[in-house]
Amino acid sequence: MIRSAPWARRSLLTSAALLCLALSSNALAQKYPSKPINLVNGTQGTGTEVAARAWMACASQDKMAGQPIVLQNKPGANGVVAAHYMRQQANDGYNLMIGGSSNMTIVPYTFKNLPYDPEKEFEGGAMFGRTYLVMVANVQSGIKNVRDLVAAASAAGSRGIDIAAPSLAGSGRMLAAAVVDKLKIKAELVATQGEAGAVTAMLGNQMPLSVLIIGTAQQHIDAGKMVPLMVFADERLPSLPNAPTVVEALGDKSMARSAFIGITAKAGGPPEVINEIERWTRACMDSPDFVRVLGNAGFTPKFVPAKEYASIVHDDIAFWKSWIQKLGISN
User: Fold this and answer.
1) Are the beta carbons of 77 and 60 closer than 8 angstroms?
2) Which domains, from first to last, does the chain contain?
3) DSSP character at residue 60
4) Mean pLDDT value across residues 45-66
5) Which pLDDT score is estimated for 30?
6) pTM value?
7) Rounded to an integer, what distance in angstroms lies between the CA atom of residue 51 and that of residue 55?
8) Alpha-carbon distance 61 to 21, whole Å?
9) Residue 17: its pLDDT value, please?
10) Using 50, 70 and 90 to split pLDDT, how confident is the model at 304?
11) Pairing state of beta strands 133-138 and 259-266?
């Protein structure tokens, strides 16, 4: 009978243990997700929440995540509360967050002390929707195009023309300021109580202009109460085929800025997390139900993979940050 030397037995046991560990690691990587996923959302009762729930319902199906995805609403401070909550979670992919233009490219930079760094602390998995903004004039103003806008601003005297600004640090206010700067006209950006306040002021002929999300403005444009002067996009939109883009109206592609929605993870997590988010989201774009709900929530379906997501966030931050500084917006 031949007996193995003790060192040989130890070597065999070590090799077996390493093999088991490798197989176990591979199995764990392939299993993601192996338990429910939390999806953190910084707004409540909005189109963003509707879109988030639609993504959850689609991505949790058996051929995709195959696990429940649970919504965690953490409203407050325009997404800062949700981002702070995410910072405290492990970067293992079991806590994801709805990322949008507000919490990923605008709001953090309105604080004197950056509350979190979107580019360093978070990593985009995939975008799935866009919301475009449009500069509109109320029909009573007689403003139908950029030429009319310049003439009306000149006729308004030293104060300039009033433009309803729904939010102090909103993309609409900053785009309005960018238009004023580009045209070299005088204007007063007048704060309103959200988009509802801007719409009320325009329909009451108290304000001639505003920059609104298309989902808000569309019904009033269709009813003949508002006139679209330019859409902040680089291509004409099917819903407003006769409205010029900002590139056509002003010759400035840098002002083609839309609001986006997507799925964000903590930076530095396992690569399979981002790969799976991309796969689930791409598959959801082929779902008629998902696309329909997105449209009803005010979003144009648009799939953007992780690498391009990061580029869009970086580019948007540079644009919005410059206008935050120009307008002196800080908390």
Assistant:
1) no
2) 37-129+258-327 (3.40.190.150), 133-255 (3.40.190.10)
3) T
4) 94
5) 55
6) 0.83
7) 6
8) 30
9) 44
10) very high
11) unpaired
